[in-house]
Amino acid sequence: GRMLSLINSCKKQRLNNEIRLFTHQKDITPFSWMKYIVLSEKDYAESGETILTHERAHIANLHSWDLILADLCVFFQWFNPAAWLLKQELQNIHEYEADEWVINQGIDAKSYQQILVTKVVGNRLQPFTNNLNHGSLKKRITMMYKKKSNRWLMLKSLCAIPALALALNA
């Protein structure tokens, strides 16, 4: 309800055929939900393209649907700490993916990290939205500098699991 109320009080514009941008005069933490991106007019003026790139990553990767499934899991398994941890880790992975997307779009990593640091003290509108401020900032910055694992090496490691299982059964 609060999210819909906020969206209704925003200035609306279309970024393309599918994505809609909502800007608000209030100082709010940028977030995306389905095909909507919401951010403050101040953020849009200062670092709009970087924030929009981050939020477009969430939309392109369908992160809102993942969060709906995680919320359903928590709804039915509210007593299970693993359900809550699953949701939290899923949100962290979403942020890592969005950060990687931003860096791959050619945005300078240092300037992006400065934006993250300035946004780290913000209010969260809803726990089921993808927002720029989510997750441990230190881990996110560390992940930006990590080198990707070699996929061939990972495939060879996966092949070792059945061989190990056969050796243990013998």
Key structural traits:
alpha+beta; single chain; 170 residues; 5 strands; 7 helices; five-stranded mixed β-sheet
Could you describe the 3D structure shown?
By secondary structure, this protein is an alpha+beta fold. The radius of gyration is 19 Å and the shape is globular. The protein has helices spanning 2-8, 41-60, 63-76, 81-104, 109-119, 137-145, 151-169; strands at residues 11-14, 20-24, 31-33, 36-40, 130-131. A hairpin with a 5-residue loop joins strand 1 and strand 2. It has 7 helices and 5 strands, in the order αββββααααβαα.
Distance between the termini: 60 Å
- Sheet/helix structural class: alpha+beta
Largest sheet: 5 strands, mixed
State which percent range the strand residues make up.
5-15%
Instruction: Report the uncertain regions.
Output: 122-126
List the helices and strands and how they pair.
Elements: H1 2-8, E1 11-14, E2 20-24, E3 31-33, E4 36-40, H2 41-60, H3 63-76, H4 81-104, H5 109-119, E5 130-131, H6 137-145, H7 151-169
Summarize the structure.
With 170 residues, this protein is α+β, with helices and mostly antiparallel strands.
